[in-house]
Amino acid sequence: MRVSGAEAVVAAASPFVGQGESAMLIKPFVKHLTKAELHQIMCSGFATIAGSVLVAYLSMGLSPQTLLSSCVMSIPASLAVSKMRYPETEESLTSGSVTVPSNDSEEASNGLHAFANGTWLGLKIAAMVMGTLLCIIAFIALGIGYILWLSYWGLVERERIFIALRSLLDLNSSASRAPGNRCFITSNSLPRIANEFVAYIALQSNPVYAALTNRSRLIATYALCGFANIGSMGVQLGVLQQVAPGRAGDVSKLVVSALLTGALSTLTSAAVAGMVVRDPMVVAPGVGICEAVVVESLLAELLGGSLQRRANVRRVQRGDLTGVKDGTTGVVNGA
Asked: Using DSSP, how many helices (H) and how many strands (E) does the chain show?
């Protein structure tokens, strides 16, 4: 995939230090990055969460194994998706041999000077992030208010507009709401417009999602485990524009694409989890486990040895060795 050194460092550090801090690890190289590298750096930040918010998620009752595995799975997913969306066409400074660019204007003369420079840079980044977030949130509120104003005067139907906007990013469609369908997951538009905190709180406490099976809840946890929301755009813009003011134009052009690819990376991890994890077998009411095993064994004899082997594997995974047929003697264990 032609991953450069800067991309690899940021992708590996994003799940631990967060989307803004990971870019600071390659601060001398940010102004020299190619557009594909800028896209990848932002995509890695959007695709994962930070260790600083992991404790907050665990306090909600979420599975720590699921959150950690999602962060690890999203690292290669973000690299692959970003390279497909924005392939490298330029020569990278950190590809192969690495030469640290010198910057005499920012070089500290002693420890006190370095402390002062770091403090001033941190204050500027914090102020830039706060101001950008306020502007983005205000812009969203302006759009919602404009829609409500049009609806108040009867020019548009509010419900139709919100349904149309939701359908762009929503996985919880009307077809997946059908009774008995266990494959739907929580609304994907909620973490994109608000943030993952709001989405996780709704997943844990909203009665709408109380009927989710363990597998569906697990897939939803994977799908929401990322910073791919509009508010995080302010963090990315604030940090990168302050670290490399000369690349502000490129960052602004690439941030929306990086947001979408970051969201797609988390959904890729959720898709992989959905292929691996399966719900336990549900036995029909009034049918005991023994009767179900007998019926399944009879069907296996009729349909061939392939189905029998699959049935044996499922029983072994459940820890139920009764009714498992030996592959050489044909004797039923436990009989």
From this structure: 14, 0
